[in-house]
User: Which sequence fits this backbone?
C-alpha cells in the first residue's frame, strides 16, 4: 500500500508530444495551504496525454509504487496500460 492520505496526479508534456505522469502526496503545511510533494515522475514517455493519465491512475489504484527508506521510490514492476 502506498499509504493513506491525500494523493494527486498530474500529467505534464516535458518534451513536445511526450507526456509523463507525476504522483503527488499531500503534506502538512504551516500556513494552512493544501500542499503536495511529488513522489514519482514516470520516466516513460506517452504519446498521448490520455495514456499518461491512465497509467498514472492505474499506478495510484494498483499501488505499484512504494516509498523506500530515505524518501526514494522503487517500482515493484511494470504498470499495465
Assistant:
Amino acid at each position: 500500500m502506498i499509504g493513506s492520505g491525500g494523493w494527486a496526479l498530474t500529467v505534464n508534456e516535458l518534451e513536445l508530444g511526450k507526456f509523463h505522469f507525476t504522483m503527488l502526496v499531500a503534506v502538512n503545511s504551516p500556513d494552512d495551504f493544501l500542499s503536495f510533494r511529488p513522489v514519482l515522475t514516470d520516466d516513460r514517455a506517452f504519446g498521448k496525454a490520455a495514456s499518461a493519465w491512465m497509467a498514472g491512475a492505474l499506478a495510484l489504484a494498483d499501488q505499484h509504487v512504494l516509498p523506500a527508506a530515505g524518501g526514494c521510490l522503487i517500482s515493484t514492476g511494470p504498470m499495465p496500460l
Observations:
- The helical segments are 49-62.
- The chain is about 15% helix and 40% strand.
